[in-house]
């Protein structure tokens, strides 16, 4: 919505009759026949203004809102049917026909129109006019770079598959996804499409294949390019708006595109996102040309409510920018329970506060029915898989689960699956883990925290509610879900926003948001546009300058030893660990690597991996370490912990590891060493050390003040924190030891995979966990898994019989990849 449209709609709302009727329509007050005619006439006028000048799309949007709201409220679907036919919203028209929602019988013209609509059928769903045009344009676009910008749930997955088929002559295809959850989901979609290609999801799965589809994160894709004389012919960048960020993963994503282009100037790139305003903002340099295919029409129009801290409720109409007060008497929790839908998503940013909320909320909701014992079975499974004191188990009785990034991945993924599967699981309390790629059947959203949520973030979050495949499901009328219910629930504990969220809500008035470019490697980056506060600007300038210099450096080569070491550190993602700008550091680290390589470190072969990391990468360079998680390796207690972690963690079950961690915590309490590092997300107390960061922040927990149940749940969180630290950070140093020939292949395998069994390692690379592989080995099933002609995993009939005999968690894990 541009400024002209905002001004016009604000002025129209000053007309008393329109103002009163749009208010009544918005808050569901009964309209008279005359008022119905009036507001529908206004919708027709808005449509006519749009058709005179299609740049003013908000006029079409308000017309659609009026007609949609009217038709759903009064079950008079003729206006909605006519609108849908005229503007190509064919899925709506098809449902109106299928469920006999028109009072009059279809005319001959209507029957002919139904035949026309059926031409927009794609697999098991109907496309909109704009959707089909954009898809066909993309499939026939020969540009080297093309973007597909469309609201959430507009057929992105099937589009990728169609595009791969269209570009079958391209040998090496990469689909770059931002998260592990999306990686697994995309893998399953590609696998089920029978594209007759090798599919790899780990860089070490590559075996010189002539034609393959790699479903990778940017980290794995870069490692593939680094280790092999290879490049991608075709790249799909999913959630491409992530390129705009300033975080290290955004930089890695732009690095991948730049490096692949250097290796293969003929690369083709498809950018996919619901959140990009201008595709030119994706450019790395001015010479690029990006052809844009965009779907601007969104079939959903959210109904937005605000609960304010003093127990007042308002409903917001974004078109006229008005808040209408509603009657309500109760607190935050009673508001949520009174407005709940069938499947509810409660958004809270902090993992710690998510757990705080569910402990309060559980006392305000009733026990749910469990007629088929599915919830009871899940409780028993979690008790066996995780621990009987896992917070989640009691919540399930009340139809509630919580999800966040400090939960073990496999547990989080299994709970997501169960939330979809079990109807009486009513509430999911989660944070941003749900924003990218997790498709849950949510019909009502409660936002309890708006910190760092921009208009784009909010739009993406709201887009998770009532996905189109749940609305147009083929067997029941769900058109009311085109008006998803979104509740902003303010409170002092979870939000601290002066009692209301009005300004955040007003950001939704416009559904067009400027791209905020914080990645200095992009051509459109301009520090002035970021409007950084004066006192922070100098530090920001320095940070962005270093990022740009580092990216330029790794695209060059040279014989200078410090320069080569710096390139290696940057390329490995270690520039955020060390002060790589310091030449003394680079010289000292280079000397330490050479000392180890020359065999001049006493008892080097007998040292553990952790001791080798400490000796080379920490001991004498600790003054140059910027990352406080790494700096903990200067502490002997921390090194002992990671030795234990690497020795037993990968071979034990999750429950065994939780018990070991619990016992370790209890031992520390007995020894009088109860302060334990948990990081900023769970820390409660400060500890006086020589480390400024730890002195100034609450990053420790005093275990002596915790009950056994609390310690168990801290152990669950700690395992996830350390799993992420080991997998995404510490392993970079294991790789460095291997790359500099300081450890053997066997040492590398044990540290990274937990085994030297080559067959098991190959299965781990396909996504299976070591604990599952061990179970398959115990059950004599590994011989029933082999490779097909494309070197993809396949199973024989005996394994399928075995899989059918499995239930619950192990069946879920098998179905992910086999």
UniProtKB/TrEMBL annotation:
<feature type="domain" description="Helicase ATP-binding">
    <location>
        <begin position="137"/>
        <end position="275"/>
    </location>
</feature>
<dbReference type="InterPro" id="IPR011545">
    <property type="entry name" value="DEAD/DEAH_box_helicase_dom"/>
</dbReference>
<dbReference type="InterPro" id="IPR027417">
    <property type="entry name" value="P-loop_NTPase"/>
</dbReference>
<feature type="coiled-coil region">
    <location>
        <begin position="491"/>
        <end position="542"/>
    </location>
</feature>
<keyword id="KW-0175">Coiled coil</keyword>
<dbReference type="GO" id="GO:0003676">
    <property type="term" value="F:nucleic acid binding"/>
</dbReference>
<dbReference type="Pfam" id="PF00270">
    <property type="entry name" value="DEAD"/>
</dbReference>
<dbReference type="GO" id="GO:0005524">
    <property type="term" value="F:ATP binding"/>
</dbReference>
<protein>
    <recommendedName>
        <fullName>Helicase ATP-binding domain-containing protein</fullName>
    </recommendedName>
</protein>
<dbReference type="InterPro" id="IPR014001">
    <property type="entry name" value="Helicase_ATP-bd"/>
</dbReference>
